[in-house]
Amino acid sequence: MQKQKVRTAITPTREENYPEWYQAVLKAADLAEHSAVRGCMVIKPWGYSIWENIQRILDGMFKETGHQNAYFPLFIPLSYMEKEAEHVEGFAKECAVVTHHRLEKGPNGKLIPAGELEEPLIVRPTSEMIIGHSYAKWVESYRDLPILINQWANVVRWEMRTRMFLRTTEFLWQEGHTVHATKEEAIEETKKMLDVYSTFCHQYLALPVIRGEKTESERFPGAVNTYTIEAMMQDRKALQAGTSHFLGQNFSKSCGIQFRNVAGEQEYGWTTSWGATTRLIGAMIMAHSDDDGLVLPPRIASAHLAIIPIIHSEEARAKILSYCDELSSRLKKVHYHGQPLRVIVDVRDMRGGEKSWSWIKKGIPLRLEVGLREMEAGQLQVARRDKPHKEMTPFAEEGIVHLLEEIQANLLAKATAFRDQHTVEIRDEKTFKEFFTSKGDEIHGGFALCHFSEDAQIEAKLKDEFNVTVRCIPLHLPQKPGKCIFTGKAGSTQVIFAKAY
Amino acid sequence: MQKQKVRTAITPTREENYPEWYQAVLKAADLAEHSAVRGCMVIKPWGYSIWENIQRILDGMFKETGHQNAYFPLFIPLSYMEKEAEHVEGFAKECAVVTHHRLEKGPNGKLIPAGELEEPLIVRPTSEMIIGHSYAKWVESYRDLPILINQWANVVRWEMRTRMFLRTTEFLWQEGHTVHATKEEAIEETKKMLDVYSTFCHQYLALPVIRGEKTESERFPGAVNTYTIEAMMQDRKALQAGTSHFLGQNFSKSCGIQFRNVAGEQEYGWTTSWGATTRLIGAMIMAHSDDDGLVLPPRIASAHLAIIPIIHSEEARAKILSYCDELSSRLKKVHYHGQPLRVIVDVRDMRGGEKSWSWIKKGIPLRLEVGLREMEAGQLQVARRDKPHKEMTPFAEEGIVHLLEEIQANLLAKATAFRDQHTVEIRDEKTFKEFFTSKGDEIHGGFALCHFSEDAQIEAKLKDEFNVTVRCIPLHLPQKPGKCIFTGKAGSTQVIFAKAY
Fold first, then answer.
1. Collapsing DSSP states into helix, strand and coil, what is residue B313?
2. Residue A440 has what pLDDT?
3. Domain match, A342 and A274 both
4. What are residue B152's DSSP bridge partners?
5. Mean pLDDT of chain A, nearest integer
6. Which of B35, B93, B94 is opposite residue A73, by nearest beta carbon?
């Protein structure tokens, strides 16, 4: 007998087709859309406000850890890119190249590029080479160090397969670039910023992430070590949500960042870089949303509460609307994590049910329907986005912050339980292969914690056969050395394997 | 007899060489520097923090007037640019063009552009054409209107002569793009946003601006009307500090933004766009700074107060430093225009005088030197950046906000007086020509208020001969029609002529 199908606001459901569900959630919540420019997206107001919240909070965390913002050019001269061999090799296949600086009428009257540049310019895919060039001029003595700078910017990587928020040709991000006098200090910075990302994901996105180090094959081009935070999505795939790189002296040498140390000798600086992108929004969507649409963690939500007036008669209209406006004004004076509550009174000319569903799909944490009777009796009911849509809780103004915090905690707990449920220790190759082999179309796999003796060939083979990669060598594990499940080599470290975005 | 020369921190002085003085102020304040990429600048932390303050305040004003932020692609397909003939003609000469999407090894082993695009992409010089394309999809019915969206972004205009903050190839800005159901509403929006810019300049940058309309020859390419705010710099030149355009139905027609009106008929939308850029920082610098360097209006300043410990003995060090830290912590809890006071304790290892001068050059509004004797006597003295550098005022913690507001008001009053002093009504061509003719290298001219019957040929001639343009037809004047000073034509409007940045 077939399971009776529950009607959901989003079609298909996660189980039916996860990638299509994701696109449908984006569309139903009006977060973003494809643009006419290959691989580029338009971030619509409801989606962009999430990015504004991410920016505000992360920026505060960067400043608290001593960083300042600056801005460097969008373009990188080709000759700069070439200075770091590994780096340019890593990005050469995905560089947008500016070759002309004007347009003129061609022979058929159509405009064509003109004014060819002597040296082509790369639209920055990342800014190590252009920022490094400035730092080389700024740094003279150990007294000039550390340099702790961050930049909020757009970058372009010409991706062949794009997916909104997760991988787009142009994306928004922040990139921190620092220079230190010692190796130890640079490593400390690299790890500190990884912790900032991890804290941010847990506390704001309600996203439990695993902090870890990348294996060589997954390192940032030119880095000595790359650290990552990895989150599990509801299709049990991993998503890299931020990275922090210890660059050693590689970029200092190619850019010429030298300083006079205390002893008066010239030394190369030790640099780091670290970045997080609009991808965080994709991670948040895929971790929390359900078959009725987007679910927004309150601390990062575009808005916290939608007040929906239910008007059955014209006489009641003015009364209800003024009640809603007053309630909204009062609530907007309440502070939640240092910001005024974001409250919307939905006065659109449409049925109440339709309105409610539009807010469910948009993921707003709380919905409050205000009808005449409930209003006069002082017995309003509020609906939580993290509960079934018909479940109501008595509404009390003074309890709203508590309610939001409860939702926030609930989302983190749910995502953590889901991740833990689908994280397994695997001790042999056969089980590993079964774990990552689907028996049809259904969602399978997860995080496989295995002893592995780092080997690029095995990694390439696993990627090829199962589309599985080493996500990281987790930092939180005690790391008892054991036997590699593929080679039997003793003294191997424990790593996490997973399919990944 | 030669005037005795006063020693100044900036060489040359404004009088000696205004353009070089400007560059020297930027350098001494560590605001920005030229990058290796032609015409692009690096905005350093002290400069970027001014932009962060501008962004925060303007963004708040945009949101209060009902606008939301969104983000649209950096690239515009060439075919889109071509859809609005006047528009593309206006920008064709300064477009950076992306023609390739990867790099590969050329015959000599050097990297060369590869993967030629089928259609070249323009790096946005402004976003009417790309945003209009999205709006055409978003707008169906009058119920979808108005659309009130702003974007914070970088844009590129390939300028031949660049000057930091004033005119750079890449610059940062915001661009508002709105669609309305009626012409009246769109015109109202255009003027409302001009007022927002004007209010912002007066209240925050201490910059008195004149609101006005541009003549046809100075209009934004494709606009029906362009409104502008014009400020006077200390060399008496005008600087356009923001513009707001009523675009009529021009862009709606080229992008296909149509809506069903209440009567069920299809109509083209009425659009506006308005923008302000990092140029505002240049305007602020040139309006207030002096021969000792940058002068920052407190409401927009990177920091408000530099506390400078004066340590003459090792015994006193700990005492003085802990006093400074405590004072700083207390002051950071004081709010000034909704933000905590920004206080710096300057513990650098250099002489007190040197420190003081570095803060003078950086334009910080207040400097507080803390020596042992004054500290113990509770008689600290504070120095104001808007007063001669040796003039001190007794310092009182509780008076600091008032002091900052006094400086803010003082800067606005000074700039207003300067502008008014150099604004003259001119009634005949001869006086006009004298006014704009220099008798050597010295600073001359100003704003010339003249009756003028709009005539593009005369405008071209004046630009050619005197480098003078019509800055605007001011909105604040009663506009008694009069005789054109060039043609004698009656019924001409009063306009402002000036040399301009």
1. coil
2. 80
3. no
4. B174
5. 95
6. B35
CB contact at 8 A, B239 and B501: yes
Q: Across the interface, do A37 and B121 touch by the CB < 8 Å criterion?
A: yes
CA dihedral angle for residue A485, residue A489, residue A490, residue A494, rounded to 10 degrees: -40
Three-state DSSP state, A333: coil
Distances, alpha carbon B398 to alpha carbons A169, B334, B491, in Å: 52, 9, 57
Q: Which domain holds residue A436?
A: 422-499
Contacts with A349 from chain B: Cβ below 8 Å = 143
Do β-strands B147-156 and B68-69 pair in parallel, antiparallel, or remain unpaired?
parallel
- Write down how long chain A is: 501
Buried b (16+ CB within 10 A) or exposed e, A216-255: eebbbbbbbbbbbbbbbbbbbbbbbbbbbbbbbbbbbebb
Which region holds residue B357: left if phi is over 0, alpha if psi is between -120 and 50, else beta?
alpha
pLDDT at B440: 80
Per-residue pLDDT band for B3 (boundaries 50, 70, 90) equals: low
The arrangement of strands across the sheet holding B381-384 comes to B343-345, B305-309, B366-370, B381-384, B392-394
Q: Which residues have CB under 8 Å from A432's CB, separation 6+?
A: A426, A448, A450, A485, A497
The type of residue at A120 is P
The token pair at B332 is: 């950071």
Task: Count CA atoms within 13 Å of residue A47 on its CB side.
Answer: 25
How many angstroms separate the first and last alpha carbons of chain B?
Answer: 35
**% pLDDT > 90, chain B:** 91
Range list of β-strands (E), B221-364: 225-232, 238-246, 258-260, 266-268, 270-277, 305-309, 335-336, 339-340, 343-345
**Of B155, B72, B153, the residue nearest A43 (C-alpha):** B72
What is residue A2's predicted lDDT score, i.e. its pLDDT? 55
Encoded tokens for B126: 């402004």
Last residue in a domain, options B396, B418, B440: B418
Q: Residue A314 burial by CB count (10 A; 0-12/13-18/19+): exposed, middle or buried? A: exposed
Closest-CA residue of B relative to A349 is: B143
Q: Do the Cβ atoms of B154 and A158 come within 8 Å?
A: no
pLDDT digits (tens, 9 = 90+) for B182-194: 999 999 999 999 9
Tens digits of residue pLDDT in B35-51: 989 899 999 999 999 99
Can you tell me whether residue A93 is helix, strand or coil? helix
Q: Which helix (H) or strand (E) holds A319?
A: helix A314-332
Q: What is the pLDDT of residues A447-487, one digit of tens each?
A: 999 999 999 999 999 999 999 999 999 999 887 889 999 99
> Is the residue at A81 inside a domain?
no
Beta-bridge partner residues of A181: none
Count of CB atoms within 10 A of residue B77's CB?
21
CA pair distance B30, A385, nearest whole angstrom? 49
**B103 falls within a domain:** no
- Chain A and chain B share a number of CB contacts under 8 A equal to 189
**How far does the CA of residue A256 sit from the closest CA of chain B (Å)?**
15
**Whether B56 and B177 share a structural domain:** yes
Residues 6+ apart with CB under 8 A from B50: B31, B281, B284, B296, B300, B301, B302
Same domain, yes or no: B76 and B198: yes
Which among A54, A55, A71, A76 is the top mutation candidate for probing chain B, defined by the most B β-carbons within 10 Å of its own β-carbon? A71
Tell me the CATH number at A392: 3.40.50.800
Q: Is the Cα dihedral A411, A414, A418, A419 positive or negative?
A: positive
Q: Is the pLDDT of residue B253 over 90?
A: yes
Query: By the 8 A CB rule, do A436 and A496 touch?
Result: no
pLDDT at B25 over 90: yes
Q: Which conformational region is residue B488 in: left (phi greater than 0), alpha (psi within -120 to 50 degrees), or beta?
A: left
Q: Quote the number of domains for chain A.
A: 3
pTM comes to 0.97
Contacts of A282 (CB under 8 A, 6+ apart): A163, A164, A165, A166, A239, A501
